[in-house]
Design brief:
Low-confidence stretches: 1-19
Number of helices: 16
Helix content: 40-55%
Structural class: alpha+beta
Largest sheet: 5 strands, antiparallel
Oligomer: single chain
Number of strands: 18
Length: 480
Amino acid sequence: MERNAVNDRLPGPSAPAAAPADDTEVSLYEIRKKIYPRAVRGLFAAWRWGLVWFTQLVFYGLPWLTWNDRQAVVFDLGARKFYIFGLVFWPQDFIYLTALLIIAALALFLFTAIGGRLWCGYACPQTVYTEMFMWVERRIEGDRAARMRLDRAPMSGAKLGRKAAKHGVWLLIALWTGITFVGYFTPIRELLGEIVTASLGPWETFWILFYGFATYGNAGWMREQVCKYMCPYARFQSAMFDKDTMIVTYDANRGEPRGARSKKIDFRTKGLGECVDCTMCVQVCPTGIDIRNGLQYECIGCAACIDACDQVMDRMGYPKGLIRYSTTNAIENRWDRGQMIRRVLRPRVLVYIGVLLAVVVAAAMSLHARVPLKVDVLRDRTSLAREAEGGRIENVYRLQIMNTRETPHRFKVTVSGLPTIAVSGDTEFEIPAATSQQVPLRLQIDRGQAGPGSHKIELEVADADDQGVSVKERSVFLVR
């Protein structure tokens, strides 16, 4: 708050005659007005709920699937192993996470350039959980008008009961969401056992409560505030739009001038447009904006206003599409749908598609050609070249062999690069499933076969049962 009180700071005796005090108060922050979105049905509402079901079946269901006698998807941070169905990833496979993030970013750019905030309107967790929480709210407290009456009513036993029931269901959903989230890092059956026996670890407890509280707070209380003030996407979306991006748009050419009217009259004779000014588009908006004022950063592209407006147009006998997915160019130039669609494959979209396909193909080929074996060669620094039995020169190494498959395998070690060089001792080692094991290795050559200094050699570790699986690593052999 700012108060203009300059005269109060002037010295008393020598100050000029005081003017009337200006006590105007200016609020720097707008007080949030609670939004009561009206329920709506239609094509886009069905799409939105379809994605709610799909995303939540995936999220809640994946931890319960089994694969090779283990949880199908689990990220074991303690063992540094990440299981995704038949694949086992290690920290050395970080490149695949990088590729996944690049693919996600490029897909976001592509879909935003084509259809605006499709992610925000249909698949963003904030949108999905807000839809779920609002469904619970409507079932317990009633429709929009009933919820508004309930909030205005004084506290009573009935009001307290409805509010407690709503928040109780919200908290159960949020708590189960937190448990499921942690179930991706601690096997969920094991996690539930720890909860039942009250033996839950501190980190599991923290993340269950933290994730549950975030779900409850964001979807139950903050809702549109997250999209308007916390999500950065709303701020930089304008840099990703152009005049050929399909966005939720009000056709002012058809709708204006707006005004109420009877269904029986010819609105054109009254000088009116097709908008009946029913405000249904505002009442169903989860962020409380009026789409008739044009594109606003608060719009998440959920298209609820399209469904609501189409229903009103049906009742009035007017054509649908007063509010529709369209582009700025299509509205300004009054293009038909075919002309608008032909502008979709414009240069920036083609660039996004080309780069995205290149990254996806490269990642898929790399994953397909991925060898389920990793090898690191470490020289034993405490023992350089030394003399072994029979006058041979010996170097000692340690092999870090990582078997990324979920079955034990035997691996054979061979060496080349110097005459008479050979492995002294065992040349085959069995490595358990999905395990990294360090094995000692002694290499020897006959004296006189190489001069003093370091000499390049090559070690090959191959699967004894599958010759197609092998890794070659370079090292050096020291001669004194």
